[in-house]
């Protein structure tokens, strides 16, 4: 696992955090190579339905855990010193695109 730079997700999990943890392990400290994540899905399968459920869970989590009344009440509550990509706050953007943008931002690849 220490030399891994490729993650292959062969079956979707009910809890999105399990897949996120598998990906994060490849993005460990000291990783110098680009990490590739591949997801194997069969068209019109139960795996596609599970992915839809995962996306719903992520959106539900974002709705409750990522909203802040303090942030909405006063823009000074937000640290703007580290510019976030606009797509992270665009709820109309596909979740996959926002997740990828988050990781690229976290790793400093978009600077």
Automatic annotation (TrEMBL):
Keywords, sorted A to Z: ATP-binding, Hydrolase, Nucleotide-binding
Record's keyword annotation contains Lipid biosynthesis: no
Keyword set includes Hydrolase: yes
Gene3D superfamilies noted in UniProt: P-loop containing nucleotide triphosphate hydrolases
UniProt feature, compositional bias: Basic and acidic residues: 68-87
Superkingdom assignment: Bacteria
Region listing for Disordered, in residue ranges: 68-95
Descriptive protein name: Helicase C-terminal domain-containing protein
Protein's organism: Pseudonocardia aurantiaca
């Amino acid at each position: 696992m220490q030399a891994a730079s490729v993650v292959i997700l062969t079956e979707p999990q009910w809890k999105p955090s399990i897949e996120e943890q598998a990906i994060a392990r490849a993005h460990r400290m000291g990783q110098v190579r680009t990490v590739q994540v591949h997801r194997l899905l069969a068209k019109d399968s139960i795996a596609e339905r599970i992915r839809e459920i995962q996306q719903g869970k992520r959106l539900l989590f974002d709705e409750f855990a990522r909203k802040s009344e303090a942030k909405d009440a006063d823009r000074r509550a937000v640290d703007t010193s580290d510019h976030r990509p606009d797509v992270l706050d665009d709820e109309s953007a596909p979740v996959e695109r926002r997740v990828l943008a988050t990781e690229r931002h976290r790793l400093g690849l978009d600077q």
